[in-house]
Recover the amino acids of this structure.
């Protein structure tokens, strides 16, 4: 099975590194293969074809429209999840978005 | 109940033993085998006789036999091979290696060994006291075993009593020291030679009235031969240094591989009335060889405690392959095959141990025997699995870890296992130094040619870079180790070196080479080797490069006063958990002469050949060492101004292998020579649990006191907050070197009550949220500036926040299901950020960011909303961290303390709205930029403006 490819987007890819780590940890705990990377809003166009799901930090919600042009599911991470770096919840979100797309 | 169980036990033991001896069993033998008292055994045996379950045989001592035990279940009857001609039950029922086996039970006793057995019996029984015997035969034919069986025959035949001694001695053991060899054999008197401190009897005396077996007798010097001639001819001998004869009656049985016609042996052979020649394996019929093979497999099955299945073709090969090392080699090959099969079995974890054909030596000749079916060997009566003799270092670690965990001492695993690993490699190395015959083929066969080739390449690297001339046998040792490592990885097991950081630190050169070897091996084998394996290789190289293991240096503490020395030594021994240091107290009323005499005696007692270190307090004591050395010839070194630290250091280092007297003296002198400025070794639990105190900086060093203290001195001198005591310096360096794990735990423990500003040291324990500054940065880089900045951040904080920076970071963030109030949100933020930041104080940064967002909201008369506020705050803090670490080079940006000019970012001012928004952002960021002395580049200002603009 191909790993689920998730891109976390924030401003200049600054504040997502902890969430990236905790999502990887959460995936490892579940025995799930994932690929999680972080990027800034400027890099959204380059994500085309390379990721299955885009998750935006709450502060870059404004980039949602631009992100949708990529053609994969786009979601905004809820503030508390972001603040707590809850990898589990972010992973849940990414997974359900990916599934929604598959259907 | 108890007696019934005991009777059952006795019955079973009797049955088991009866199977291997046709002569009946004594109560004593039953008692020993069953592990019970002899009287009880005797009582139960008699009851069994009464019940008709056993029989009493005539003779003294009384022997018993289980009824129906004439055909008991012999251990080897489970052997299911069906050869063309099965050997009779009489021979299979006995175990040649078992304690009850006699001459008749040897495989081939009625075949190729028939003459030998008859000769041996005659030699034992010949009146009045038997015949001195020489056993001849090439390597590995079983001369030692044969001699043992001769003695057993003597017991069985009643020729020897129960108390008749049997003493075995290998003359090759002391061949390099003839004096020691003779002293061992004949004993010595006090003063017979240097080191002969007291009278000592030799083995000849111990064997008086019994049998003395001298293996490799050709290694005996002519002087020694002469002494034995006296013993043989006249029944007299002298201890070394003695002038009067002693009498002894000893039946000599000697063994040699040498040609008896050699000049060395000719006179000796003449004195031997019986010469027994044991045939080489190749001259023995294959049926006997089969029997031997079976016995060895059975012995392995007993030892491992798991059934062994041997492929039919493997058996066939073992019966016909060329085996110049005879039975000894056959046993070695079978053990190797079992060892490899055991490894494969461990990988599967289930089923039997299976020995496929490929694991036994290939046969170059066409097979001479018929086909076999697979054979199964089940563990016999020998209880439990025995420790595997060639356990790999991994087995060792796992076993030790298990032990420590079950004892609840998992936290001590690091140092203990570290020492264990070193010992393992040293043992391996020592073993390889004096290899057994045929070891080279053994190893090559075990690891395969490709691993040997890889190791040769690796050793070339080591030779080039470490200047190590690595002998061939060490290469084989490494090959053995690597083959085990690769095997492990192939089976999906992990390789973990619990003391990787320490090895890296202790053996930097070896570690560097080990890393290169690792990379080379990776590309050659196609197997990814973990970094930890480099730790093992480095340890191996270090062991190979070190001197031969020397005797331990003695340590003697001498001090004025009635109890100081004793207390110092006792404390050090207790701390290091050894008994190395000895003490001499010097009470005021004792004269110097008397003391010197006592020191002299103690030095003599303590010296093991490597000398003695004297730790003294002051004055005349500092000169005693010289006097003692002059008198005794034992080297000593003296370190004065003894302190606890010095004794501890000396004891600790003396416990290490291979340390010399000079090295030890230097280590002791260095210990505690630097005054420790306001720094302490350990935090007591009370201090850790106590009320939140001053913020602290923790130093972490592997090497313990010495380097930690130097580091602390440097830090204290250069960082004002440390010298003023505003911030406390705490060392996490343990006496015996602290591991990464324990350092991390200690820091995390500290974090629960006290804010930890930074970790400084030789290795990063990897504590989340706490910045680490390496010693290198302190010495060569901007480590000090970095530390100062971190401290300023913390010290400027209001006190509760300072506390929180510690607590919040160390505890998992609280999970609140409902919407948290703003204060909690802030705390959460700090906690999360704490895991991510290395350069700035998370609490301070978060507070500044929070304030900046407050200002922005006020300025714009706009509410950001919770999610946006969180996102922006996180972004801001991370941005600050990044800018502190890597300041940008652009000129026009929100600058240090010039927020007013921030708006002059000309090229970004496209639209009025965005422009004013940007200006607002820049204004809000001003205090933050000043606080952290950063310059916020315009694109970041723009980015932040966008976040707000789109809402």
């Amino acid at each position: 099975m191909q790993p689920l490819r998730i891109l976390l987007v924030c401003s200049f890819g600054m504040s997502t590194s902890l969430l990236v780590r905790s999502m990887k940890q959460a995936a490892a705990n579940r025995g799930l293969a994932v690929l999680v990377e972080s990027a800034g809003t400027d890099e959204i166009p380059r994500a085309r074809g390379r990721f299955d799901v885009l998750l935006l930090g709450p502060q870059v919600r404004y980039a949602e429209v631009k992100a949708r042009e990529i053609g994969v599911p786009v979601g905004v991470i809820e503030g508390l999840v972001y603040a707590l770096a809850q990898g589990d919840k972010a992973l849940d979100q990414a997974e359900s978005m990916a599934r929604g797309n598959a259907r | 109940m108890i007696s019934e169980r005991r009777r059952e036990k006795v019955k079973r033991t009797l049955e088991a033993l009866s199977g291997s001896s046709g002569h009946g069993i004594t109560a004593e033998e039953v008692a020993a085998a069953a592990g019970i008292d002899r009287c009880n055994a005797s009582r139960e045996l008699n009851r069994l006789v009464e019940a008709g379950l056993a029989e009493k045989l005539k003779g003294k001592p009384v022997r018993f036999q289980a009824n129906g035990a004439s055909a008991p279940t012999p251990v080897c009857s489970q052997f299911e091979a069906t050869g063309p001609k099965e050997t009779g039950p009489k021979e299979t029922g006995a175990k040649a290696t078992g304690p009850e086996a006699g001459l008749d039970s040897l495989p081939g006793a009625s075949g190729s060994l028939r003459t030998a057995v008859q000769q041996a019996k005659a030699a034992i029984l010949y009146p009045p006291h038997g015949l001195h015997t020489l056993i001849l035969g090439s390597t590995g034919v079983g001369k030692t075993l044969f001699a043992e069986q001769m003695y057993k025959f003597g017991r069985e035949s009643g020729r020897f009593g129960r108390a008749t001694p049997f003493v075995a001695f290998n003359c090759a053991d002391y061949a390099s020291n003839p004096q020691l060899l003779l002293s061992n054999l004949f004993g010595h008197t006090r003063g017979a030679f240097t080191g002969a401190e007291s009278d000592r009897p030799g083995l000849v005396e111990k064997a008086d009235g019994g049998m003395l077996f001298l293996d490799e007798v050709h290694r005996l010097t002519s002087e020694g031969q002469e002494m034995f001639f006296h013993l043989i001819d006249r029944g007299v001998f002298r201890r070394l240094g003695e002038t009067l004869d002693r009498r002894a009656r000893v039946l000599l049985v000697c063994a040699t591989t040498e040609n008896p016609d050699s000049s060395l042996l000719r006179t000796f052979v003449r004195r031997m009335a019986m010469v027994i020649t044991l045939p080489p394996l190749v001259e023995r019929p294959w049926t006997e060889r089969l029997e031997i093979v079976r016995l060895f497999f059975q012995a392995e099955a007993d030892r491992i405690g798991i059934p062994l299945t041997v492929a039919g073709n493997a058996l066939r090969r073992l019966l016909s392959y060329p085996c110049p090392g005879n039975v000894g080699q056959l046993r070695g090959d079978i053990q190797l095959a079992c060892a490899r099969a055991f490894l494969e079995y461990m990988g599967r974890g289930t089923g039997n141990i299976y020995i496929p054909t490929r694991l036994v030596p290939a046969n170059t000749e066409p097979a001479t025997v018929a086909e076999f079916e697979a054979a199964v060997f089940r563990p016999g009566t020998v209880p439990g699995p025995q420790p595997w003799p060639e356990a790999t270092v991994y087995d060792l670690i796992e076993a030790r870890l298990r032990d420590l965990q079950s004892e609840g001492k998992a936290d001590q695993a690091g140092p203990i296992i570290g020492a264990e690993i070193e010992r393992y490699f040293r043992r391996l190395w020592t073993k390889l130094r004096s290899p057994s015959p045929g070891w080279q083929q053994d190893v090559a066969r075990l690891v395969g040619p490709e691993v040997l080739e890889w190791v040769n390449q690796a050793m070339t690297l080591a030779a080039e870079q470490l200047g190590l001339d690595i002998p061939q046998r060490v290469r084989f040792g490494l090959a053995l180790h690597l083959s085990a490592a690769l095997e492990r990885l192939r089976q999906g097991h992990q390789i973990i070196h619990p003391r990787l950081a320490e090895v890296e630190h202790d053996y930097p050169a070896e570690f560097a080479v080990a890393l290169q070897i690792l990379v080379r091996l990776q590309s050659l084998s196609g197997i990814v080797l973990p970094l930890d394996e480099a730790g093992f290789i480095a340890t191996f190289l270090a062991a190979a490069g070190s001197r031969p293991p020397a005797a331990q240096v003695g340590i003697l503490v001498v001090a004025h006063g009635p109890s100081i020395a004793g207390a110092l030594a006792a404390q050090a021994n207790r701390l290091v958990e050894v008994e190395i240091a000895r003490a001499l107290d010097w009470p005021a009323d004792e004269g110097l002469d008397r003391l010197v005499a006592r020191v002299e005696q103690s030095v003599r007692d303590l010296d093991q050949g490597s000398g003695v270190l004297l730790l003294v307090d002051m004055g005349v004591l500092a000169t005693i060492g010289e006097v003692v050395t002059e008198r005794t010839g034992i080297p000593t070194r003296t370190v004065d101004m003894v302190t606890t630290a010095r004794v501890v250091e000396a004891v600790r280092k003396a416990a290490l292998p291979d340390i010399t007297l000079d090295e030890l003296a230097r280590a002791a002198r260095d210990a505690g020579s630097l005054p420790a400025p306001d720094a302490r070794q350990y935090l007591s639990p009370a201090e850790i649990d106590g009320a939140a105190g001053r913020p602290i900086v923790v130093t972490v060093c592997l090497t313990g006191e010495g380097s930690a203290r130097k580091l602390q001195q440097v830090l204290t001198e250069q960082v004002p907050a440390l010298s003023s005591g505003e911030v406390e310096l705490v060392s996490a360096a343990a006496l015996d070197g602290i591991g990464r794990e324990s350092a991390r735990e200690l820091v995390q423990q500290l974090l629960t009550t006290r804010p930890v500003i930074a970790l400084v040291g030789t290795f990063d324990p990897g504590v989340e949220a706490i910045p680490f500054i390496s010693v290198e940065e302190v010495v060569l880089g901007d480590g000090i500036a970095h530390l100062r900045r971190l401290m300023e951040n913390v010290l400027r904080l209001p006190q509760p926040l300072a506390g929180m920076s510690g607590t919040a970071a160390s505890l998992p963030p609280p999970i609140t299901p409902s919407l948290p109030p703003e204060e909690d949100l802030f705390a959460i933020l700090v906690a999360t950020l704490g895991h991510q930041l290395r350069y700035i104080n998370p609490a301070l940064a978060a507070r500044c960011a929070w304030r900046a967002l407050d200002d922005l909201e006020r300025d714009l008369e706009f509410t950001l909303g919770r999610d946006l506020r969180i996102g922006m705050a996180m972004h801001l803090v991370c941005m600050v961290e990044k800018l502190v670490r890597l300041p940008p080079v652009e000129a026009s940006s929100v600058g240090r303390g010039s927020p007013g000019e921030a708006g002059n970012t000309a090229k970004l001012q496209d639209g009025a709205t965005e422009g004013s928004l940007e200006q607002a952002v820049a204004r809000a960021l001003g205090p933050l930029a000043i606080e952290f002395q950063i310059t916020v580049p315009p694109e970041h200002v723009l980015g932040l403006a966008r976040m707000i603009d789109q809402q």
Observations:
- The mean pLDDT of chain B is 72.
- The longest helix of chain B spans residues 326-348.
- The longest strand of chain B covers residues 554-560.
